[in-house]
Amino acid sequence: LNRSMDVDAFGATVAVQGSTVRQLKADGAPPEQIKAEVDKLKAMKAELDAMQKALAKSEPQFNRASFDQMLIRKFFVVPSFEIHGGVGGLFDLGPPACGLKANLLAIWRSHFVLQEGMLEMECTNLTPHNVLKTSGHVDRFTDLMVKDVVTGVCARADKLLEDAIDRLIDSSPTMSQEEKDSHLLVQRQADAYTPEEIDELLKKYEVKSPEGNAFGNAFPFNLMFKTTIGPEGTQAAYLRPET
Questions:
Q1: What is the rounded average pLDDT of the residues 34-43?
Q2: Which residues have a Cβ under 8 Å from the Cβ of 120 and sit 6 or more positions away?
Q3: pTM
Q4: Which residues are within 8 A (CB) of 137 and not within 5 positions of it... i.e. 6 or more apart?
């Protein structure tokens, strides 16, 4: 248990370092400073991976496929709208999961409300556009996507660029360190480019879909679920991002 807690604690430290790197990119920090923090993050991730592997060796092997099948078989969860074909990522809670959720909430209330004397509130899941515009979510809570011009399948542009650079470096053992560093600099800033910039880079690195097709121009995809309030449909709102 203690070893597991150590891994979790170090994982939280790695997450903080990742946030630091993203903030430096967003703030336009000097490339040298970004490189130093990225190198630190990579070293921390490697150490975390080693810790996780060591922990996994000391624990019984977990069969994820059997576990997922058991959850469905015992009716803990069931794919939503399954008889209509369903939608990936949407699940309904069955009776055992509903009971488990109720027990967890009861424990939470027992500690925070009864023991700590805190006041419980339950807020709406919908947030008006102007609130999230002020917080920056509307402008920044986005990923740049590209679409396969033949199949229409979308993919994250920054991940495609990062993977393409990894493949280029791995396939070029004689590449000079100077050229390698220039490619790695592009890779480190993959999530900070504008749509126009990443379009040019995807062309430069000859990025194609798994089927070998070209991608269209990059476009921003907001990760929040958008809807409207009222019958007029003029007041935009979003499902709360933390939901």
A1: 92
A2: 109, 112, 113
A3: 0.54
A4: 224, 238, 241
